Amino acid sequence: ASALRKMTRANFVSGIGGTNEAEFSVIISSSGSTNIATGTNTTIPFGSEEFDPDGVFNTSTYKFTAPSAGKYFFSWCCRKSNFVSNRFFIDVYKNASGKATFEDGGGSIYGSVGGTLVLDLAQNDTVHGEVYHDQGGTQAISNNGTRFFGFKLIG
């Protein structure tokens, strides 16, 4: 008990938290929609950064690259733009290996599919997403309703 009475606020606060690293948020673009072929996985073309202070997302390859080893939190959302399909999903890849699938079978013509996950990454590992639908023809996904964001976990 006596040790706690001697602890100052400054000593206590210095042991909490940390600084976020590798945070980013991307969308396809601020308006409109993007066509996606049927029956095939298509890399989601995230071409517009909402923020990326550490330059960890490449808008040409549509991939996040880990600047250092650690655990990273990611969140995904992909929104349909006026179509119904039996299958609609996002596959998440670490490098070239599939790590997760977020799926919505059918539903609303403007429905969304998404999810979150934590990945243990080495420096220079990449993460990207691919979208799939089986509607029968080329369909569109919402540019500003489709997003990917993430950051390195502290600790």
Distance between the termini: 27 Å
Secondary structure class reads: mainly beta
Largest sheet: 6 strands, antiparallel
Helix segment tally: 2
How many E strands?
Answer: 13
Residue share in β-strands: over 45%
Mean pLDDT: 90
Q: Which radius of gyration do the C-alpha atoms yield?
A: 19 Å
H-E string: HHEEEEEEEEEEEEE
Low-confidence stretches: none
How much helix is in the residues?
under 10%
Please describe what this structure looks like.
There is one protein chain. The radius of gyration is 19 Å and the shape is elongated. It has 155 residues and is mainly beta. It contains two helices and 13 strands; from the N terminus they run H-H-E-E-E-E-E-E-E-E-E-E-E-E-E. A hairpin with a 2-residue loop joins strand 8 and strand 9 (97-103). The mean pLDDT is 90.
